[in-house]
Amino acid sequence: MAFTARMKDLMRKYGKVALGVHVSVSVASVSGMYVAINNNVDVDAIFRKIGISAPGTAAADAALPAPAPAPRAGDGALPNPAPPVVVGQGAPRNRTGELAASSGGALALAILCNKALFPVRVPITIALTPPIARLLARWKLVKSLKQT
Fold first, then answer.
1. Which of 8, 24, 72, 124 has the highest CB neighbour count under 10 A?
2. pTM of the predicted protein model
3. Pick from 146, 127, 132, 119: which is nearest to 29 by CA?
4. Where is this region: Disordered (predicted)?
5. Which DSSP symbol is given to 60?
6. Whole-angstrom Cα distance, residue 18 to residue 21?
7. Minimal CA–CA distance to 22: which of 5, 35, 7, 3?
């Protein structure tokens, strides 16, 4: 059964409990991503390592400033300008830090990463909902489970 069909079945069977579990997993995911991005963890490299395409990879390339055009000979430029100095050429770039600084902050990037992790969050929700629903029913915080 596909994840969306299983999620719909979960919502029909467990209702508010399934929604609460899914929102809780999402909030934990956004919080974890926000802390990681704020602490300058290269989330893009981690996503590439586990095989998930990082959100905004093309946007990160577009957000970087374009190099200035080279001056023409008739513009009064020096005849042999010095080559540009590239700082940190050997070290890998932290694309996450660059994107967080250029696109409005770590929270926006954490929400984008959360969207990319949807295929990971759905199975977690599917696995956690039944035991949490049983626990809440045992504590009499929710009514007994709906039968399908």
1. 124
2. 0.63
3. 119
4. 63-83
5. H
6. 5
7. 7
Print the SS3 string covering 15-49.
Answer: CHHHHHHHHHHHHHHHHHHHHHHHCCCCHHHHHHH
pLDDT tens, residue order, the chain (148 aa): 687 788 889 889 999 999 999 999 999 999 999 888 888 888 778 888 888 775 555 544 444 444 455 555 555 555 555 555 555 455 567 776 676 666 568 888 889 889 999 989 989 999 999 999 999 999 988 887 665 5
* CB-based contact 95:48 (threshold 8 Å): no
Closest residue by Cα to residue 125 from 2, 38, 46, 11: 11
Q: What is the distance between the alpha carbons of residues 8 and 79, in angstroms, rounded to a whole number?
A: 69
